[in-house]
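ok so I'm stuck.
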Amino acid sequence: MPIRNRNAYAFLAPYLLVFATFWVWPIISSFLISFQNTRVNPWKFSLTVNWGRLFSDPAFYNALYNTLIILVIQVPVMIAIATVMAVLLNSPLLKARPLFRFAFFAPVVVGEVAYAAVFRLMFSFDFGIVNKLITLIGLTAVSWFDNAHAAMALVIIAVTWRWAGYNAIIILAGLQSIPDDVYEAATLDRVSKSQQFFHITLPLLKPIILFCVILSVIGTMQLFTEPFLITNRGGPGGGTETLGLLLYRQGFLSLNFGYASAIAYTMAALAVAISLLNLWIGREPK
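replied:
not stuck anymore, here's the structure
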């Protein structure tokens, strides 16, 4: 090996060592642990104790159902809102655009515990501002934390509020990369603004939106913070328990590391499968 190559690998060695220790080895180790019965001492190898339980565990199917419900409803709604927000932020008619961009992005940097506490107060049955507004228009107050459907809606609202602005900034970057000449030519051809949006903006934004969708799918598959902090660890009665919360409960509360590893790899496989499906749907026609 040339001296230049040896020097390069020598400089890379500290990073590669840290990468292998804290990334590669934990992935391999957790995969091996998923085939071990960690409920006995010492641990014993078993092909079916964890993976067999996975496909017959009602708690797993409940968490999978809740996660997919959030995925199917929240991700499209959030991406649609983010796209509209990005278009509005890109409008030359909007004054103080940097201020609005910061305001929309701000939820991402807010502490998770702080914003969860605020949401719990806002949606409180007795004194929350949301129920106050609902009763003002003549509707019945909603028990957000005691009804599974209402709690699921609350999780979806919270996740959308937190990440819509983040995706809007990404889509805004894509919007600003579209040449103005395209819109000028469309205007000269008397193409309306709505037609420009659907036939020019959206097709050119397709790769950016697809990127945001894949990021959102990966994030939703490992959703943990909102059901843990806002709806009190996946309540009521497991109505908002996600795969991420089930993994935490099995790994850190029950100390069943083998089953938790099997759940983790199932989450990763589902995230990859759904992301590949989105890539296939969003592929460019030949």
